[in-house]
Design brief:
The protein is mostly helical. The strands form 3 sheets. A two-stranded antiparallel sheet has the order 1-2. Helix 3 runs antiparallel to helix 10. The radius of gyration is 23 Å and the shape is globular.
């Protein structure tokens, strides 16, 4: 059940309630330089590692659909929507970061996960609702990233095929083998036990995200120079090019795509739980959030706007795989390879909280089961022994297999991205942070700040509903012509 959600990603340590009484190298856990005040291993995260985690989560597949999103909205509404989403995300993230500790911001009880914060501050039925939404969204992100990674892997092979055949071969191929390849890689990496052990993968993934964003930007700038004009219009794709109803649905879907591009609030508390203290975790997290949102918005604006300027109304749904660019083919290969590496890391960043929840729930339900709790030490020459847990091995492998199969059934990049953004944006990014902040800071009912916070929440609800409607309409259209496991691209 959702109310039994993990209170942290360090679930193995949680099996030792006596941690405060155990001595390690002559120190008690509460006094040890190796452990925090609650007996957990010492946190070592900084502004920069937190920023790397956020950038890994934020600059993901979403950046590739932004030129398409701006094409639906136009030169006025497109950039304005991106700026508004960035401001809302930054503001609500600062509210959420304050909720890491319940009560006192320095010595209050630490909430190790998003769900812990909801439980300790709001409680009741809202905990179940939040858990369902958060973990369903994390599952959906895993599906979306598998689709995106396979598309980029296909793009590498297709660009080489086009180059070698001189454009004579249509180079049709099936995405299934690429999704399976990505799934195998995730099965291996998903055996990393805890979130705080992913810092190196996040840094690699963040570097990759900058790599393909810069390449996409450079190619967009080059295309604009080649065209000798800026394409696009103030209002976006015109009625006539698409039907009036399709224009409306695409506009809504574009909002979902932009929302997805800024989606990371669901793992913000988990990232904050890796940050050392002092200073206050919320202080560090606000700085990391500011740095990350500014950096990502800068890249988003450049990539989205130059992509739209290069292709206008015909902007592809995926900037680097839509084959608006053909040359230099080797540079496209580098960009798409960087996308794949980034998504390999981002998949883990998003899925670790879900992994932790299931494993902590299993530990609570079956405390005496060796299958669930026993760890087998496997020696690794020159490194610490790897602790193999059979339940973790089996369940995480099954999870990756399921997400891979769903990706093969619904390989619709743009529509999936829009739907995920729409579903997660209001409840996770806005509603729960606002509700928790109001309770945490004891903001008086009907005060000016109280009213403004609820007005923000209601406005974002309307955006989420319309964006979800647009994405569902797009998926319905795609399903009409798609044959699972057989359609080639």
């Amino acid at each position: 059940m959702v109310e039994d959600v993990a209170s942290g990603n360090h679930h193995l340590q949680q099996q030792q309630p006596q941690a405060f009484d155990v001595s390690v190298e002559g120190y008690e856990h509460r006094d040890s330089k190796f452990f925090d005040e609650d007996g957990r291993h010492k946190r070592t995260g900084t502004v920069w590692t937190a920023s790397a985690h956020i950038i890994t989560a934020v600059i993901g597949a979403g950046v590739l659909s932004l030129s398409w999103a701006i094409a639906q909205l136009g030169w006025v509404a497109g950039p304005a929507a991106m700026i508004l989403f960035s401001l809302v995300t930054y503001y609500t993230s600062t509210l959420l970061s304050v909720c890491y500790r319940t009560g006192d911001p320095v010595n209050g009880k630490r909430n190790h996960t998003y769900m812990d914060a909801v439980r300790s501050i709001l409680g009741g039925f809202k905990v179940k609702i939040c858990g369902c939404i958060q973990y369903a969204n994390l599952f959906g992100v895993a599906v979306g990233y598998t689709v995106a990674a396979s598309i980029s892997m296909m793009a590498v092979q297709r660009s080489n095929c086009f180059h070698s055949s001189g454009g004579k071969d249509p180079c049709h191929m099936n995405s299934n083998v690429y999704m399976i390849t990505f799934g195998v890689a995730e099965i291996i990496l998903s055996q990393i036990p805890d979130f705080d052990q992913l810092w190196w993968l996040s840094i690699v993934a963040a570097v990759m995200s900058f790599t393909y964003s810069i390449i996409g930007l450079g190619l967009g700038v080059g295309k604009v120079v080649e065209n000798k004009r800026v394409r696009g219009s103030l209002t976006g794709i015109t009625v006539g090019t698409v039907s009036e109803s399709r224009k409306i649905w695409r506009t809504f879907q574009a909002l979902g795509d932009i929302a997805f591009a800024y989606s990371y609030s669901m793992i913000l508390i988990e990232i904050e739980d890796t940050v050392k203290s002092p200073p206050k975790e919320s202080t560090t997290m606000k700085k990391a959030t500011f740095i990350s949102v500014v950096v990502t918005t800068f890249f988003y604006m450049l990539c989205g706007c130059f992509g739209y300027a290069a292709f206008g109304d015909s902007s592809p749904g995926n900037l680097l795989t839509g084959f608006g660019f053909y040359n230099p083919f080797w540079l496209l290969d580098v960009a798409n390879a960087a996308i794949v590496v980034h998504l390999v890391g981002a998949y883990q960043v998003y899925c670790q909280p879900l992994f932790s929840f299931i494993e902590k729930t299993a530990t609570d339900r079956f405390p005496n089961s060796d299958f669930v709790n026993k760890e087998i030490k496997i020696p690794i020459p020159g490194y610490h022994p790897y602790k193999l847990n059979l339940f973790r091995l089996v369940w995480r492998t099954i999870f990756v297999i399921i997400t891979t199969l769903l990706s093969m059934l619904l390989p619709f990049f743009n529509d999936i991205v829009g739907l995920l953004g729409a579903i997660g944006f209001w409840p996770i990014t806005v509603y729960f942070p606002v509700e928790m902040y109001i309770v945490q800071k004891r903001i008086p009912k009907w005060s000016t700040r109280w009213v403004c916070l609820y007005m923000l929440s209601f406005a974002c609800l309307i955006v989420s509903v319309t964006a979800a409607a647009g994405s569902v309409a797009g998926i319905i259209d795609d399903v009409k012509v798609y044959k699972p496991f057989r359609t080639n691209y």
